[in-house]
Amino acid sequence: MLPLQAAHASKDASGDTPSPEVIALQRQMITLDTHLDTPESVDRPGWSIMDQHDVRQDYTQLDLPRMKEGAFDGGFWAIYTPQGALDPASYEKVRDFAVMRGMSIRLMVASHPDQFELALKADDAARINAEGKHIVYLSIENAYPLGEDVSLLRLFYKMGVRETGFAHFMNNQFADSSTDPNGPKWHGLSPLGLELLAEANKLGMIIDGSHSSDEVLDQLIAKSTTPVVLSHSGCKAVYDHPRNVDDNRLRALAAKGGVIQINSFGSYLRAIKPNPERAAAYKALFAEMRGSDGLTAQQREALMAKRREIDAKYPETDRPTFDDFMKHLLHALEVVGPDHVGIGMDWDGGGGVAGLEDVSGLPKITAALLKAGYSKEDVAKIWGGNVLRVMREVEAAADPKEAQ
C-alpha cells in the first residue's frame, strides 16, 4: 500500500494536476459515484462509451478512457425520467421509457463484458474491481415511471436496480419535490409514497432522498427501516438553496447511519451572477432540444454546434469552481464526519465545476482531502466505503421472500 505520508507530500490540492503519488493512491481505492446521468449519453446515436470524448465539444463528462484516466471505478447509473403529467397515459409512456433506459444500461454492459459488469450486491464491487472491470449499479432518479403501481418496483429490482429516489424537480404521486414552484402538495410522502418506501425496504433497495423536500427527508429518515442516502446533494449552511440540506438534518441522517453524497451542480454550490443573454440563448436552445431523443447523430451534432456558439458568444463569467465544491464536501465532513459523507457529482446531469470538468480529474478531490488532514482510510470511505456499508445494511434488512 502507498505510504500515507507520500500522498500528503502532494502540493496539488487546490485543483492543479495531481501528483503521481495521489493518482497511485486513487487507483488503490474503490472509487464510486452515486449519481451518474451518463445513460442518456449511452442512448445517443453514434455515441460510444468506449471512445474518448471532449466535454468542450459534446458536453459529456464520462466515458471509458476518461474513467481510466481519473481512476474512476463506476457507481450508480441512473434511470432518469423528467416529471410529467399525473395521468394513466403519461404513466404508461414513461414506464416504457424507463424500462428501455434500464435495458440500454444493461446492453452497454453486455456489449463490453471485459470492461463493465453489472453489480447487484455490495460485495460485487470489490470483486469486479479486482478483475479490472468497471462497476455498474443501477438506480432510479424520480419514481414517476412507477405510476400508481408500486409493485412495478419489483420489475426494476429484477432488472438490477438497487437504489430509488422519490421525486425530481416537481411534486409527483409519491412525494414533494424540494424545488416545485407551487410548494408542497403532500407535506412529505403521499400515501402511495409510504407504500413505495415500504416496498423498497422489503426488496433491499437503497432509499435516496435527493431532490425530495425537507419534509420528505424527515419522513424517510424516521420511517425507513434502513439508512437513507442523499445521492447528490449539498449543504445549506454553505449555500441556502432548496436542494441543499441543513446541518440538523445532516446529523439526523447520520444518526440513522445515512450518508450525504456531495454534488457539483454549480447553481447549488453558491449564488451565480446573472447572465441574461446567455440564459435566454440557452432557454431557446433547450426548447429546441426538448423531445430530441429521436434525433440522428448529425442532427444532434448540429444542436451541439449551436451550444458551442452560445458558449463562445456569451461565456460563463461567474462559474462555480473546484473550491466551491470542496466547501460543501469539507463542511459535511466537519458536521457528520467521514463515516457519513460521500461523492455524487451529477456527471452528465449538470455537474462539473471550473477546475473539475469531467471524471478524468477526480484525483484532485483525493489530494484536497489529504491536504485537509483526512487519512487514506477516511478517503476510501468517502469514495465508496460508506455507500457500500449502507448497501450491506440494506441487503441484510431485506425480506428474503421479496428480494428473490
From TrEMBL:
Pfam family, one: Peptidase_M19
Extent of the signal sequence: none
Matching PROSITE patterns: RENAL_DIPEPTIDASE_2 (PS51365)
The protein, known as: Dipeptidase
Transmembrane region(s): none
InterPro entries: Metal_Hydrolase (IPR032466), Pept_M19 (IPR008257)
Species whose genome carries this gene: Novosphingobium album (ex Hu et al. 2023)
